[in-house]
Amino acid sequence: MHNLRIALLSMHSCPWSRPGGRYTGGMNIYIQNLSRELGKLGASTDIFTCSHHGDELCGLCLPSGNVRLIHLNTGCCDRVAESGQAGYAGSLAQAVDAYRREMGLRYDLIHSHYWLSGLAGNRLKELWGVPHISMFHTLGALKNGSPLGTVEPASRIYHERSVIAECDRVIASTAAEKRELVNRYGAPADRVSVIPCGVDVSLFRPVDRQAARAACGIPDKKTLLFVGRPDPIKGLENLLRAASMIDRDSDFQLLVTGCDNRYTGEWRQGAEDVRDRFIFAGPVEHEKMYLYYNAADLCVIPSYYESFCLTALESVACGTPVLATPVGEIPQISRLSALCKIIPDNSPAGLAQHIGNFLAGNGQDAGRPGPELSLNYGWDAIARRITLEYEEVCSTPVFAARLAAR
Description:
This protein has 16 helices and 13 strands. It has helices at 26-40, 89-103, 115-128, 140-144, 154-166, 175-183, 209-216, 236-245, 265-270, 289-295, 310-317, 330-336, 348-359, 371-377, 379-394, 397-405; strands spanning 5-9, 44-50, 67-72, 109-113, 132-135, 169-172, 192-194, 223-227, 253-257, 278-282, 298-301, 322-324, 340-342.
């Protein structure tokens, strides 16, 4: 593992872009933390992404050591509609290989993130003769199966299937995702491994609530928190309606983070009668999010679909109770921590009832995260499990012979 050189692909989104945009969220945080931990374990990781506006700022956030962020000036990935991106996979792979040849490098493994990167990863696998591990983070067929009726193009699902068919290993973040990969996509079960996303327990930790509210610049009163990208599948509109339905005598505020303010204009207008309850904080730097979790009495996750739901894990790590629909890793987290409570649906009326009960002090959970959180979801533990996958695919006879020849 100490001599392994990894080409990590994140083509459609720079991992160090600020969270809160259409294509920036949990996957970015995942790649940041995984690459940092791989560096600690001795692997050399080059993260390839496309050039975009403001990428000169990304280097300021890079971890030290043997991790590099490489922006490829392909001219095809800055704000390109997803439905048209598949045609660029070949040029992206060529750009990565051109960099490799220019720098005189050899890579031992490709780790791709999201389906577009997976397509490029399959082409690089063929070109370099090295193993390819893929992680999707979201799957088109699962989004289409959500109650919201999301319509991902058939072309995306077709390309996801092609990535699965040709790569050497797929990492699923939940057991439910593995079942869907096997049942809906035809993935061989022995080539799908389940490894959850992690949480930085040194950053996401309990701190004084009043101090956190002061740092966030919000009033010191009962606070509900929403964290999420500006995507209807996150269920924010239902939460805003629910908050509007709660008795006016209940003194609370709803703090919305993660959504760029330009996406919340319509929701703001629809909540004029109770606008004093809502605080739209916009995107927040990941390093400051622990303050927002600690400022809240309750984190509400009304999503229709989550591939994992890092928000729940971060909230629990901060000792803040979670009220969530049974999506992603929520069922497993709820079994691990009494701080996480599952509700059956995200209807405004249902949300209003559960939130109202919480605010009234009925069924309110209290406590702190136990050691199991770090043991199961700490990034050091997650990275070690990922490296075992790397070592396993590299040790197969065909790849082991090629590595030995180098």
